[in-house]
């Protein structure tokens, strides 16, 4: 006769502690996002109608996109964020699923920060992260439409960014030669230093 598996979890943290931890995390995330976006260039400069022209050829379009992406990178991040948020607001079902997934992460790691035992076998925090990551990946990309909505938002964002980068003349931007020629690091706005591969030059 089979028996149901026994689940043993650490004593959940007090509700006030959980609420305080969640609130602190949300506030820090909000402050960080706002501080990053505040460092972007003025939107009036980004959408200067006097600096809009059709590129002469594909090479010029690529050069413009490279320079504009270096100068307006934080503005482009804001466009991606706004497009993603609007896409999920237009698909409330996917938004609810995403909220439930985030809530499950909060429950697993804020309500029960300790180890989990199933039939006498202990699972560490790292193993919990792996299990939750796999479960979230399956739900997002194979069970629900969250992945489709997300990739649609990213595709629309990249199309808008490419269109702006190709038609916005970068000649009047204060972009020095070193910054223009350096490889673009899309993570340069993050506090964690992430290096980009060096570009070999012929002497």
Automatic annotation (TrEMBL):
GO biological process: vesicle-mediated transport
Compartments reported by the entry: Membrane
Assigned GO CC terms: endoplasmic reticulum; Golgi apparatus; membrane
InterPro entries reported in the protein's UniProt record: Prenylated_rab_accept_PRA1
Transmembrane segments: 74-90, 96-113, 134-167
Task of the protein: May be involved in both secretory and endocytic intracellular trafficking in the endosomal/prevacuolar compartments.
Listed PANTHER family: PRENYLATED RAB ACCEPTOR 1-RELATED, PRENYLATED RAB ACCEPTOR PROTEIN 1
Similarity-based family: Belongs to the PRA1 family.
Protein name: PRA1 family protein
């Amino acid at each position: 006769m089979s028996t149901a598996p026994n689940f043993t979890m650490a004593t959940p943290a007090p509700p006030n502690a959980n609420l305080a931890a969640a609130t602190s995390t949300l506030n820090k995330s909000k402050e960080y996002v706002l501080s990053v976006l505040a460092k972007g260039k003025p939107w009036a400069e980004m959408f200067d109608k006097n600096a809009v022209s059709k590129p002469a050829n594909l090479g010029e379009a690529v050069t413009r996109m490279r320079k504009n992406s270096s100068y307006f990178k934080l503005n482009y991040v804001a466009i991606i964020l706004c497009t993603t948020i609007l896409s999920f607001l237009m698909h409330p079902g996917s938004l609810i699923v995403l909220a439930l997934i985030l809530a499950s992460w909060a429950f697993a790691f804020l309500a029960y920060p300790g180890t989990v035992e199933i039939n006498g076998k202990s699972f560490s925090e790292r193993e919990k992260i792996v299990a939750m990551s796999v479960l979230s990946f399956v739900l997002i990309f194979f069970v629900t439409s969250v992945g489709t909505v997300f990739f649609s938002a990213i595709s629309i964002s990249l199309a808008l960014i490419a269109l702006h980068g190709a038609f916005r003349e970068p000649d009047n931007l204060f972009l020095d030669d070193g910054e223009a020629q350096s490889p673009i690091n899309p993570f340069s706005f993050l506090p964690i230093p992430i290096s980009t591969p060096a570009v070999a030059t012929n002497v």
